[in-house]
Amino acid sequence: MVDSGDQARAFAQKMAPLPAFHATHVSHKHVEAYRIAAVECLRDGSGTVTLECGLVVGAPLGFATRGVPSAGDYLVRYEPTDTHPQGYLSHSPRAVFEAGYVAASRQPDGTGAPALTRDEADAVVERSTAPRVTADSITAKIAGSKFFRDGVLTICIITMRNGFTHIGKSACASPENYDQAAGERYAYDDAFRQAWAFEAYLLRETLTASAAERRGQDVTVEAPPSATQDTRSRGEPRAPRFDDRLPGGRPHP
Predict the structure, then answer these.
(1) Cα angle at 75 between 42 and 63, to 5 degrees?
(2) Which residues pair with 70 in a beta bridge?
(3) Following DSSP, what letter does each residue of 103-115 receive, concatenated?
(4) How many CB atoms are located within 10 Å of the residue 21 CB?
(5) What is the C-alpha separation between 112 and 103, in angstroms, rounded?
(6) Worst-scoring range by mean pLDDT, 15-19, 33-37, 106-110, 240-244?
(7) Which residues contact residue 14 at a Cβ distance below 8 angstroms, ignoring those fewer than 6 apart?
(8) Main-chain dihedrals φ then ψ at residue 64, nearest 5 degrees
(9) 179 vs 128, residue with greater confidence
(10) Quick one: which H or E segment has residue 125?
(11) How far is it, in rounded angstroms, from Cα 105 to Cα 109?
């Protein structure tokens, strides 16, 4: 701990204002909780708390008097009251908190906000070691992109190195807000997002084939019949279509 007026003022300058309360976890009460990355404390127990999502918040007087939090513990914010209009801040050891609370979005009725912020979710994924699709792996397969504009509508066509294309679009409600560069950015991102599912499917197929090879199994995957394929070639009757019917409602054989 430190006890310097200059350092205290430096801490105060780094403090981020707390956003509106939004419960992330629930037990006998609703709380907002985030994993702690680092803590800097003064002798009065106040200081700053850096969260894993990158946000730096100010810790009130007495916050660390019962023990300085460790990385991985939780910063817990309770619902605002008349006494604490911004919500009372406390900390909880990770094991204690996770044993007593569950994420609000995991309640039986399925209500509540996502348990993690986007930054927190990204941090979890970045720690993954198994094969996965990444933005870099998708970008490496892109051959080029083209943009088209029609009024406030911007269209982007991303062409992959194998010739496959993804189409994205963006538009604004008020023509006065249109900006071509921004529209192209949003349209590109929309097209780029579509590539994730295709790349994930391809990776899943590759992993499945590799696992089958290790087990000595046949890795041939039969493609499903197309919507127009006549399944009678496999000995199955084809369901009659409306336009197959002869006068009088009798279907073709």
Answers:
(1) 30
(2) none
(3) EGGGSTT--S--S
(4) 15
(5) 8
(6) 240-244
(7) 48, 56
(8) -110, 15
(9) 179
(10) helix 118-126
(11) 9
List strand residue ranges (DSSP E) for 100-189, in order: 102-103, 142-150, 153-160, 165-171
pTM of the model: 0.46
Residue 168 near residue 188 (C-beta atoms within 8 A)? yes
The average pLDDT across 159-176 equals 96
The conformation of residue 130, written as its DSSP 8-state character, comes to S
What's the one-letter identity of residue 233? Answer: S
| Segment among 8-17, 99-108, 135-144, 195-204 with least mean pLDDT | 8-17
Q: Of the candidates 216, 146, 226, which has an alpha carbon nearest to the alpha carbon of residue 187? A: 146
| Look-up of token digits 């009460």 | 29
SS3 236: coil
Q: Are 74 and 92 in contact (CB under 8 A)?
A: yes
The pLDDT score that the predictor gives to residue 200 is 94
